[in-house]
Write a structure and sequence with these properties.
By secondary structure, this protein is of the alpha/beta class. The chain contains 10 helices and 10 strands. A hairpin with a 6-residue loop joins strand 7 and strand 8. The longest helix is centred in the C-terminal third of the chain and has 18 residues. The chain starts with a strand and ends with a helix.
């Protein structure tokens, strides 16, 4: 059988609904139990954006079970290209994204494990993969005091190094006054609201959301991949994370690469920069998770 993709739906402990996809290897080529890689998309992203299906296919072909999902604050249902639930997008926070990711990890042994077939997922060999803001969630999960021991390998692409990214004092005052901040999705032209909860999360949970501190706490081997020409998250942020990282880690600098490694949505095939990132990623996971 070729790689198979199956949908799933989870309810989080916070009563949010997560929709996801499970990509499984060809069982005639890769015997189970398979190591697992959980994929977390970034801000204004979704599990079917651009390179995510391609990355999932590659990893499944290498013998990994791949779990990708839409964060509850993405505001998108499976198959949608635009945000349809503006309220969910507005209410999203960094802390909620971490909660969503941890709920998916927790479901690997039951709901998602049942979908894969009893005994087919090796949850003792767990990799996390995050892009951009999803890299922050993956890093925070890998450094979480109650979850760190469950993470065997970590890969982040173009990850942010700090969460406080939203304007100066005047913009914050206006955000507080109006109760929201509006951002534009350059791909779709949609005007999207950020609720006051996001600003309050940043202001009240600075220690919990300190990504450089998390880099020093996490113990899972970590591959940090960043494009030299990243227009959204400058490469210096990847360098900051690498400088703060303890334990085993590597920094993969991709020349002439932007934030999405020059890939687009709809996906038109891998670029040389994306291929470099993907090759480094699958090599890292095979080294530390096996397959």
């Amino acid at each position: 059988m070729p790689v198979t993709t199956s949908p799933f739906t989870l309810s989080t402990p916070q009563d949010r609904t997560l929709n996801g996809l499970l990509d499984l290897p060809d069982s005639s080529k890769h015997s189970s139990p398979w190591p697992v890689v959980v994929v977390c998309h970034g801000f204004k992203g979704f599990m079917e954006w651009g390179f995510f299906p391609h990355v999932a296919q590659l990893l499944a072909e290498r013998g990994f079970a791949v779990v990708r999902f839409n964060l509850s604050g993405a505001g998108q249902q499976p198959g949608e290209d635009e945000v349809s639930d503006l309220a969910a997008f507005r209410d999203n926070t960094y802390s909620r994204e971490l909660e969503d990711l941890l709920a998916v990890i927790d479901a690997l042994g039951e709901e998602i494990g049942d979908l894969a077939g009893e005994g087919n997922l090796d949850v003792e060999r767990l990799g996390l993969f995050g892009h951009s803001r999803g890299g922050a969630a993956a890093l925070l999960a890998a450094a979480h005091r109650d979850w760190a021991e469950r993470v065997t390998a970590l890969v982040t692409w173009a990850s942010i190094a700090y969460v406080d990214r939203f304007g100066g004092d005047e913009e914050r005052a206006e955000w507080h006054r109006r109760g929201k901040l509006t951002v534009v999705n350059s791909r779709t032209g949609q005007e999207l609201p950020l609720g006051l909860g996001l600003l309050e999360d940043i202001e009240t949970n600075r220690l919990k959301l300190d990504l450089e501190a998390a880099a020093g706490r996490r113990t899972a081997p970590w591959l940090i991949v960043h494009g030299e020409d990243d227009e959204s998250v400058p490469v210096v942020e990847g360098e900051r994370l690498a400088a703060a990282a303890a334990g085993e880690h590597e920094f993969e600098r991709v020349k002439k690469a932007g934030h999405t490694f020059n890939a687009k949505h709809p996906f038109a095939g891998p670029t040389p920069q994306l291929t470099q990132a993907m090759n480094a990623t699958q090599t890292w996971f095979r080294r530390h998770l096996g397959s």
